[in-house]
Fold each of these.
Amino acid sequence: MTTVSPGKVIKTDCILCVWGCGINAYVEDGKLVKVEGMTEHPLSQGVLCPRGEHLVDYIYSPDRLKYPMKKRNGDWERISWDEALDTIASKLQQIKDKFGAHALAIFCGSIGVENLELAAFARRFRGAYGTPNFLSVESNCFRSRILAHQLTFGTFLLEEPEKAKCTILWGHDPDNSKLPLASKIYKALDEGLQLIVINPKRTPLAKRGIHIQIRPGTDCALALGMLNVIISEGLYDKEFIDKYTVGFDKLKEHVKQYPPEKIEEITWVPASDIRRIARIYATAESASIVPGICSLDQHINGLQNGRALSILQVVTGNIDVPGGWAAVPFPRLGSLHIKVDEDPIGVAEHPLFYRLWGRTSPYGQTMYFADTVLTEKPYPIKALIVTGGNPVLSLPDSNKMKQALEKLDFLVVIDLFMTETAEMADIVLPACSFMERSGIGYVYGVTSGLPYILLRKRVIEPLWECWPDWKFWCELGRKMDYGDLFPWKTDEEVVKHWLKPSGLTIEQLTEQNPEGVFFTEKKYDMRQKGEFKTPSGKIEIYSETLAEHGYDPLPVPIEPSQSPVSSPELAQEYPLILTTGPRILEYTHTQFRNVPQLRQSAPEPIAEIHPATATKYGIADGDTIAVETRNGQIKIKVRTTEDMAPQVVSIPHGWAQANVNVLTELEPRDPVTGYTELKALLCRIKKVI
Ligand code: SF4
């Protein structure tokens, strides 16, 4: 299936982030020389962000890991793949014999979402070895939203903002996080879209719509205020509610407690604005709320935020209709699943997050990893394999994560670059980029509502001694005598395995449709089929399942644990609100700082504050400030902007020299999901002289 051919244009997709924009890759003499946006691609339609534009520089970066290495007396020493695999296999066997299989954890970074080759093969190895502890960023990212939808609709639904007459971008800044969506919204605005943007920052798109400058961490309250208006003014869809839902009467009573005047005090949003946006949203012919990827989830009531937004869509009848939230069919792909009976860490604390109505999540609760390693409770975890992730920077409470990694007996990292996590490893392994192996581009359903699939083609041969992740897991499996579970030897065999149940073939996705295909039509027939896979068979506005587990069956606003309301004494010491993780278009989380062209346009981490906040603390634009929480301190350059809400300090994640996760904490957690608070903490700032 090698597609290297001189002067040829190869149609594939970019997965430097989860969106998977279509690209035309130009190859000369076996070298990738250029990429450009693929106009036929239904999501990106030819658009590429700066990361995609600089793909060639990334692939051929001199900083790439080029061969396996092991640490000896603090220095890296080049070793062969054979030695690396022998060492890993023998160490893992020793650990299993002494502490049991659960003493190994495997962590998969966010790129495992769009790369079956990373996540699914890592999980297969987990099953073969017998550990339940497959961990990923999904313990703090996106799965909360999926669970909120499952609890409400029985399945995950996706918004259709480009078809809607009214779109609410709620904590979402697609100009800096999802360029393909931003392009579509700008086009829709020209065609009459009514846009509402709820965000503490006036984002570029907020300047084109109604901007609601909310206090971070109060989204659930705002949603309940909107529900109060919609229900009290009779703006709800009675027919839809009567036919397809349960629990509306209880909701009707519940939201009486949240009149706009009360919500104004909580959210900083004027009551008149709450009424205004509720009316616009509820009376639009079709409407979609588009939440940011994690902005509503990383709170102690993140799950309830997801439920509140789902209920807004339900009462306005914007479910299973074009322009609302709709189900998306997924391709049937080959499975690599091997069952492990033992539950992973974190299940006792958050049972619903792991198991809902007999369905189990693929992941354990990563937020319990550091504590489990450090306390050895409920049992010792002694080894970790990290694939495509950098938990030292990306997970909350970096200092605790570092302590946990230091305590491990054995740490292996497979990656393209020497990350902050790889620096701490015993063995690092060089991974191929997605241009050096084949795969399936299949996440368009869950990320963009498109029943679309393409073959991610191997554009160039693997560079240096880099291996595709699937090969690492298969070869390690063979070394550990699990060879019968890892029969795959080539990219082609792997891709054939994925495609087999789908009815699609490699030939179809290379010769007939190299740009990809819609494997089915998107339908809006959940209501007609009566397909709500909840216990009641209806959309559950009121969730008996949540009630049975001791959680709120209807969304209730909960103050962030650190706020002037919930912790006034702490607020005396730390008077400002810290929100973390705004996106930067040049980077995906912790990646690409070493691509010079990207670094040139976004050279350093920047905290954003309002000029009035700056003046209050004697700070000027461009100064370096110290930002301190009760967990730690970092130094970072400041930008003053009137776009930011006063009293808010916004700091991006992913920077080693100003690692915002030094400031964040693992406690408290959302009781349902275990997610930690990253979007509304308390901090103080001062100018660094
Ligand atoms: Fe690649 Fe950028 Fe598209 Fe993400 S948004 S897939 S990084 S081009």
Amino acid sequence: MNEELEQAQTLLRAARSIVAVTGAGISAESGVPTFRGSKGLWKSYQPEELATPEAFARDPLTVWEWYGWRRGLIATCSPNSGHRALARLALSHPEVTIITQNVDGLHVRAAQEEAADIDPSPALPIELHGSIDRDRCSACDARQPGSQEIDITSIDTLPRCDRCSGLMRPDVVWFGEALDEMVLDRAFTLAHSADLCFVVGTSALVHPAASVPLATLHNGGKLIEINIQETALTPYASATLAAPAGSVLTTLLSGYDNSA
Ligand code: OAD
């Protein structure tokens, strides 16, 4: 680990533009459940019953019950030292962008907390899979802030669009849905031009998000993987830091901040 850490620090010092591609593992230390693995959400729940447009069309009450539960759970969680270390890095270095698959909003909260007097915070992430804190109209696509209390008594009590009264849904990307093209383009363009990509706490199984680090790699850039387990990207990483993201990012990036 020490050798890998030194290698990561060397890569970091040499890098001019950086992307950090994060997944559920970065929020695990905040208490947000991951999706895969022995305690992952997909062990207890079926994605096809909860996270597809077909499931929502068939049974919006069950889908909203699950998202209401997750929204409530996430509201009790706070950004951890990993979110904060990345936010500080992005604040102090304009050539750093956080790209996340997470819908939990913890990178956004860390960015706002670390830059309390700057609005919008320059450390805001690119959110590839949307945000659980927002609703989107299933009829007209209008977005509005998500309410914490979801009344699942009947279809008539579910959140409705202020503009057209259509049924609102969580503003997240479900299985079988395309990612926002502009958001995805921006992520790939930045990853392509980056000379270093951190891949943090993702199983790297869900595409196209899992392909974003490959854009850095294919253009001659390097990967640093931070994950408690190996993934399909591990063989391509120039440094692998196999420990919880919060402590690793704090150690790695505090050194970088001092030398910058
Ligand atoms: P996963 O649950 O698939 O993977 C989480 C990863 O985090 C695993 O590789 C773990 O080893 C790692 N991990 C867990 N705790 C960690 C810690 N403390 N520090 C570092 N690493 C840790 O989550 P994602 O890869 O984000 O999509 O999943 C990708 C997508 O699949 C999600 O965005 C979601 C999901 O289904 C949709 O809902 C569309």
Amino acid sequence: MRRQKNSTFPDPPDLPSFTIEEDPEATHKGPEQAPPAAFERHANTGLRRHDVTLDEARIDADAAKIVRRLERAGFQAYLVGGCVRDLLLGGKPKDFDIATSARPEDVRAIFRNCRIIGRRFRLAHVFFSGGKVIEVATFRQKPVAEMLEDELAAAPEAIDDLLIRSDNVFGEAHEDALRRDFTINALFYDLDRQQVLDWCGGMADISRRAIHTIGEPAIRFREDPVRILRAIKFAARLDLGITPDVVDAMVAYRDELAKAARPRVFEEILRLLRAGAARRSMWLLWESGAMAVLLPELAAFLDDHEGTDGGANRFWQKLRAIDEKTARQGTPLDDIVLFSTLLHEPILEACAEEDDKIAAAYEFLEPIVERIAVPRRISDIMRRIIAIQPRLEAGRPGRFARTELISPALDIFELDLISRERSTAFVDEMRARVIEENGGSFPTRSPRPVRASRRRRHHT
Ligand code: ATP
Ligand code: MG
């Protein structure tokens, strides 16, 4: 789309591949394999069962315990969503979610270590030692607001009532599968029968490593435009292809993202940066045009590659460095580091010609903070950290070195040095010095907030 013919432009990241190889772990058996009469569940729901033996060693033992206990109590219970997808693709699930026919009260009656959360969207949380929480959700239908769009338009007075009830309308397993976003996210795993239950062709999409919405992409993205960001996240993180009709709908409906709940959008952008595939995610965000809707300042900066004095190039290098560091340390980087680094280059550009750099940074960030609901906690710290960078460069962090911001500030500085192909030994030395001066660890003291107006007066 906007890729420029310039030899200095970084190689595009490896875009998600689109393969049609069969997944060796997935043993397909056709629907002619009728389920034994003993569990004539889900009759006439269009279910396909696939016999698949997932390695129990990769399944969370507590999650398995919950599933088995619910089944023993006479309920249906399955592993669902991301964990099934990740296990089938050979990855390591982040967490294990369970869907069940049991109501939240039933779940609480069975597990002592259980709490019901949410008012409209009630879920059971089962707690284990070490702070582990496993979410057990009762099968639900598609929200009424989505299901009855036309009917609601005809009877607007019913909307409030329907919306309140809509989130918590319990349903059958197949309804719970079909309300989900992508086919690969809608697979249920029956632990004891060792079967993947598939109502929407998710298994075929796992095999060909493809992302496809359940149903019409245009409808599903309009229902919830955050799904556009989720498609990018799964493609980038799991190295999957997005089918062409889905890509077309993402591009066609990208403007809908402006209507999405802003905190959800911000959280989803952070997830794109945290998952170890920040570079590929941002590339897809840019290429799809979704970046121009959510972060037009950054999209324009990248579009004008020629005019950024290498800034666009450094931007991609920084994202590469973020991904490498994430892989090395095995956990995501601090949100402050991620979001500051995302905007560092355009901020530097915006401040370059200005005397009052803090005020210029404020001016640059303000519309972004508004548009995607960046929490003040993050935006204030970002401005402080970016303002301190020249002092870090000079090796003189001063009192700042005694605040908790020094650690993310040094990370951001390090990423900047990497993007300029300069040595980072200097940062390592500074880190060691800060830790030594602070008695063996990074400081944890919060800095005093600095108001823009106060700083501005000092400078002018
Ligand atoms: P991750 O590994 O990032 O947690 P996940 O697939 O588990 O990926 P979650 O956000 O934890 O993603 O959501 C759990 C499940 O809920 C998804 O697998 C999907 O089935 C369903 N889901 C999440 N968000 C949506 C959405 N916006 N629309 C429809 N279904 C959704
Ligand atoms: Mg999840």
